Fold these 2 entries.
Entry 1:
Amino acid sequence: MEELGKIIVIGSGNWGTTLAMIFSQRNKVYLWTIDEQEATEINKTRESQFLPDIKLPDNIIVEKKFSRQIEKNDIVITAIPSRFIEDLTDEFIANNTEEFIIVNASKGVEHRTLKTVWETVMAKLPKVQFANLAGPTIAREIAEGLPAKAILAARDVALLFQLQHKLENDLLKFEFSRDIKGVELASALKGLIAIAVGMADGLGFKTNIFGIIMTYGVDEFVTIMKFLGVYHKTAYSIAGIGDLITTCISENSRNRKFGKLLGQGYSTESALKEVGMVVEGVSMAKTINKLAKFNLSIPLISCITRIIFEDVKDVKKEFMNTLNSISG
């Protein structure tokens, strides 16, 4: 395999901007935005609205997406809401860009088809080399210079070593996995459990209940992963339980914040508006609703989806009745 080329990050939200900052320690990075105006503003201020008070390094070049050609050995890191991934694949095709390396950092599953990002991308772009980045990585912490460890998942072991050499630095280290779909599912499912912990917090509960929620949540991960024919032990990796714990305890987690607002009496719509950024756990809840007809034993996750999408009058009662009905 030839030496890897330039690094392009698509998505200038808090996670995409953070990834650009991480990888700019040792490389020039191109951060792609939706439009020219946004790119000009970030280049001028060297600051993102999603990461206030943190200055972007000079070797991050912000530009409108597809401002330059993507070459075969370039690394394109996708950090956009997962529901836009299929549209992005169409943009690649429209720009005659169908053979390159994708490192997906988006979390979620397409709720209509139950396809992971990997499956969505490879169906449209079969010549792409695909890797997935996941794990306990709260953007704000890393942007502030605190260390983290993530999983890189790819079928091609040689690609994993090349990406490690290109991307790893003192701030972010990697474990490897070849279980792309398991890593994707685990990292997508964790948002639902973080919503539940936030909900418990909003209802006035503390760590006793948080621990119960996380334990039952991992059990339900395994149930779903087995049903979908995925290697279920990935649920116990840092892409699963590691990311789950981090997202559940972090005050910077969007999923947790959203759940806390629900527990405090906000409607789903008003809670999403208050968070102000995409909450991937809500997208995953739509996917779980698709699985309801299969009668899977996932009472906690089913309860969370009911509270999100149905007009539950007494959230506290619904929540506690569910927890009390579960037996290990």
Entry 2:
Amino acid sequence: MNLILLGPPGAGKGTQAKKMIEALKIPQISTGDILRAAVKEGTEMGIEAKKYMDAGKLVPDSVVIGIIDDRLKEADCEKGFILDGFPRTVDQASSLDEMLQKSGRRIDHVVSIEVPDADLLARLTGRWMCTCGASFHKIFNPPKVDGICDLCGAKLYQRDDDKEEAIKVRLENYHKQTAPLIEYYSGKGLLRSIDGTGTPDAIYAAIMAVVNG
């Protein structure tokens, strides 16, 4: 089973991927993770990627594709994989198709977890941190006293990337990148849209109904 998991920041992709790995016995392939692993292992593609990462530049598609190709050839991917965070563009999707074709494989389903932006904003801007390392959420895990850490009594703060303006920019970028991808996979009859506003268990059940259907 070869799957792609799409979804905006805060849609719960990580939570769902963990459950899917367990049920399907296939690995989750996260672009960020494998880029870091390739750099650490000093593979040919990892050395190439490091040049761009050290310069603060985006790693080019050709290098990312090469690293994905290397990863998908590993033994744990024989029965399938879940791609998370890749492809991000139609060009990457097209390169992925060509790469899989060479090894006689193809994508079975593209699962898109869809959540309205207003819900995502509430989820993502609700996180507050403490200098002691504790983390709270206004909706899911509120502190007993608003703005104060339960553990040490210090004042809670919000990270810059959890602030509303930053989240709006992330969502805007996601929609710009992903809208063409959704169209691309819809055209191939591979897109499966899942309502991501329910409980994690309900969302998981909907995903597995698609995957097993």
